[in-house]
Amino acid sequence: xxxxxxxxxxxxxxxxxxxxxxxxxxxxxxxxxxxxxxxxxxxxxxxxxxxxxxxxxxxxxxxxxxxxxxxxxxxxxxxxxxxxxxxxxxxxxxxxxxxxxxxxxxxxxxxxxxxxxxxxxxxxxxxxxxxxxxxxxxxxxxxxxxxxxxxxxxxxxxxxxxxxxxxxxxxxxxxxxxxxxxxxxxxxxxxxxxxxxxxxxxxxxxxxxxxxxxxxxxxxxxxxxxxxxxxxxxxxxxxxxxxxxxxxxxxxxxxxxxxxxxxxxxxxxxxxxxxxxxxxxxxxxxxxxxxxxxxxxxxxxxx
Length: 303
Prior knowledge:
By secondary structure, the chain is mainly beta. It contains two helices and 17 strands. The chain has a 17-stranded antiparallel beta sheet that branches. The model is unreliable at about 1-20 and about 20-35 (pLDDT under 50).
């Protein structure tokens, strides 16, 4: 869910994928909405990761639980036949049950604006660009050091209603890995089966009926955060004062989405967090966790 930020969460915007699917609802055509149309999208996402044995600098330090929340809103006014603006905001918070004497904040947060565009170049090509300027930190003592502006560039080629491929990259100049490229595809190879290999949520999906979809897949999340100016002093390790912290997480498991109404869905999934890393890359200090069970609920509306 760290949806920005993370390797994340947004290689190819999940909202762009949704836009493609809606455009492809009528086979053989990519129809632009009316020039006066403005769509609104709202998302709420919560997940819990159970206690996971955690190692800091190679030493076992205890068990860590995690509770995450993500709220996102985007409005998309159609300004021309092939051009859509994207304006909104997002707040994410991760609460960590940090083991004692571990140099890791109890919370990591993002509060950001969303500014972007979707551009239909031809009947087969779509471009997406999005930047999220905002605060990415532990929110202990906010300063200009905490400001970041990661951005995403992606392209989609629509071969037909059943097959599309995607290419993109996410750029965060503060991260240890400032550029993350990604490739993906969506292939509806049978009436009820879809292979949706689009980061950060690759899935194999099965349409049980018009309202209920089952899937097996994963989530790839990541982001970069700044800790407080006195964070290191508070942990008797001054080298961590105002340090940059990369975070990566991978979960896998089954899930379902239920279309409550034509424009609203509810989702649930459960499985395992198979990889989690916090990396103070300038200080060469890494904190990792063993696998642990997780559960997630999500709500999405488009109107």
